[in-house]
Amino acid sequence: MTAPTAVHLPAAKDVRDMLTGLVGRPVSVAPGAPVTPTPKRPVSVAVYVDPQMSVNALCLMDLGASAYTGGALALLPPGGCQDAVEEDGELTTMQVDALHEVVNVLSALFNTPGAPHSKLHGLYAPGDEIPGDLVGMLAAVNRVDLAIEIPTYGKGAVSFVVP
Questions:
Q1: Going along the chain, which residue ranges are E strands?
Q2: Tens digits of residue pLDDT in 72-114
Q3: How many other C-beta atoms are found inside a 10 Å radius of the C-beta of residue 130?
Q4: How far apart are CA 144 and CA 69, in angstroms?
Q5: Three-state SS across 20-57?
Q6: Distance between CA 99 and CA 91 in Å, rounded?
Q7: For the sheet containing 28-31, what is the strand order?
Q8: Is the separation of the CB atoms in 146 and 136 below 8 Å?
Q9: Buried b (16+ CB within 10 A) or exposed e, 2-11
Q10: Which pLDDT tens digit goes with each residue over 19-45?
Q11: φ and ψ at residue 56, rounded to 5 degrees
């Protein structure tokens, strides 16, 4: 028996299919800009670990992707999600709970044949302090950066990173 090799980045089509199935509406996915946290641009960071509890993948979402994927999954009113992005600059507790479910389901994108099993270890919501060891991993070059749009909700950006 050989040990699992490495986690592979998901293809844009797989992300589209996963999000479309998850939110029950056609989600458009295209190449996009890297999601990078800044004080004026908070992001959510989902941390995935292997069975030895080593970080093996990250999912970064800007505020739009965080609010709209979670909102669409939980059938929250689009207007409330848009207010969180455009006016409040933060998510409600209900939106964070829904986002947690989204990033938990997205762990399936990393669980491909031959790769070590990945599971969600934690979620840092937009505005949460991200531990220093994770901050260094966010800019890894092994990544895929995507722009997404969820009909009636809005646009956002997602980056998957394998440190």
A1: 28-31, 43-49, 55-62, 119-124, 143-150, 154-161
A2: 999 999 999 999 999 999 999 999 999 999 999 999 999 988 8
A3: 17
A4: 18
A5: HHHHCCCCEEEECCCCCCECCECEEEEEEECCCCCEEE
A6: 10
A7: 28-31, 143-150, 154-161, 55-62, 43-49, 119-124
A8: no
A9: eeeeebbbbe
A10: 999 999 999 999 999 999 888 889 999
A11: -120, -5
Q: Who contacts 149 (Cβ-Cβ below 8 Å, separation ≥6)? A: 27, 28, 155, 156
Question: Please, are residues 95 and 71 in contact by the beta-carbon 8 Å criterion?
Answer: yes
Identity at 80, one-letter amino acid code:
G
Q: What is the pTM of this model?
A: 0.93
> What's the one-letter identity of residue 127?
G
Q: Quick check: 139 and 36 in contact, CB under 8 A? A: yes
